[in-house]
Design brief:
Two copies of one chain form a homodimer.
Chain A (H helix, E strand, L loop, with lengths): L4 H28 L14 H19 L11 H32 L8 H25 L5 H36 L13 H25 L10 H18 L1
Helix pairs in contact in A: 1-2, 1-6, 2-3, 2-5, 2-6, 3-4, 4-5, 5-6
């Protein structure tokens, strides 16, 4: 199977959008929200958007795309399973750190934890991410996992992976909305007059959504998938072929 | 192809979640936000969430699932194309009405239009919805549309349809977040103390997300698709069958 030009264009777009997301979220925290600080300062909060966008969106999205990159197709799938799991683990750790800083910030200022819709969706996202990683490890990396468990888990793993990315997009956009409303007017102009910070953070939201949709678009293209050569994949292909044959006759 | 029990369970779940979304959003507007009114009253705004959740989420999601319902498989696809397009049109009209009421409300109170991230994502969603409907009509319902345009449009139409649903979920959750922050404490207790309204609207947000994810889950299951019998579908099946054959040999 030859990698298509369409894939390379779309993949490059996803990489550019991912980098822009990281750049914009870091600039927002550092230029308009006062920069970063460790435990004990109100500036600790500013790590939260950076860690969440990096872990839940950009790293998670890139880890999901690992198998689609054509130069990996000539190498053993096991190697890229480890890369996929490793990137996901880093993404998960960043998101847990992102949760830690927001809980610590709330504790420091005596603010209520987990009251907003953003926090409800966000905590669900990280919980599902944890479960998905553990099940993925058990199913696809433990050599002793039974083949039937592995083949039943695969479509669920793919589907839940996409759901986590969608939940991450919802969490990030609602988080930016919440933050902009909470700090409304704190730097002089109200959000409704659309100051530079407002425009910038809104644009960050659009970048995050665009990145997520491009990644989901790549994942939805069946002919951009890694050509399967493992035993379990041949079984799936046999079933597919039989179903297409039955359709025609 | 026999419809599976798994489909019926998941489809029933989507119907229940859709109905709960409509119930919850109507209760939120009527019980906590003062009910509904037409042009000229601040209560006009309360139509906005109801119209958007009904049009962009519940009707859009159900229209997307029309071809998956097994009892429709014995009938002509053309009939169900008309039902699909009709439901989508009603959903689109409701979402345009939802935009109208919010613009009219802003005009009445001299508020700025389109400043928030929620409004940016929301307006993009409705614009893409309009484009998708027009292209769908031109490609799949106009008898004179060329077969090559139709077969190239189909995967794009499916992909953009899913993207519109994801954008709708993001718009709705960010809209609920924005509204809860804007009316924070207006009914006595602040949002951070999680009054009944806060819990109720947060739960509405989770229902909307769950509905969207269940619909996207159903759409992602290839073996729950309507068995294709039209000429254009046989062409696609032939290509699939050839590709599966090449995988195996």
């Amino acid at each position: 199977m030859r990698p298509s030009l369409g894939f390379y264009v779309t993949y490059t777009l996803s990489l550019c959008l991912g980098l822009l997301c990281l750049l914009f979220v870091s600039c927002w925290s550092s230029l308009w929200r006062g920069g970063f600080s460790w435990t004990g300062s109100p500036l600790e909060f500013n790590w939260h958007p950076v860690l969440m966008v990096s872990g839940l969106v950009v790293l998670h999205g890139n880890a999901a795309l690992v198998y689609r990159v054509p130069f990996t197709w000539r190498q053993r799938k096991q190697t890229w399973k480890l890369v996929h799991a490793g990137l996901m683990l880093v993404g998960f750790i960043l998101s847990v750190l992102g949760l830690y800083v927001v809980f610590d910030y709330h504790r420091g200022l005596n603010l209520t934890h987990l009251y907003s819709l953003h926090s409800w969706v966000g905590i669900c996202t990280v919980a599902v991410f944890a479960l998905q990683w553990i099940l993925g490890l058990a199913g696809f990396l433990f050599p002793c996992s039974p083949l039937c468990f592995r083949s039943n888990l695969k479509p669920v793993h793919v589907c839940v992976g996409k759901a986590i990315l969608i939940l991450s997009l919802i969490s990030c956009v609602s988080g930016i909305t919440e933050k902009l409303q909470l700090v409304n007017g704190s730097s002089g102009e109200p959000y409704s007059s659309l100051p530079v910070e407002g425009k910038f953070a809104n644009f960050l939201g659009l970048l995050i959504v665009s990145f997520g949709l491009v990644v989901l678009g790549i994942l939805s293209k069946d002919n951009w998938q890694r050509p399967e050569t493992d035993g379990e994949a041949i079984h799936v292909n046999k079933t597919l072929s039989r179903s297409a044959f039955l359709h025609l006759h």
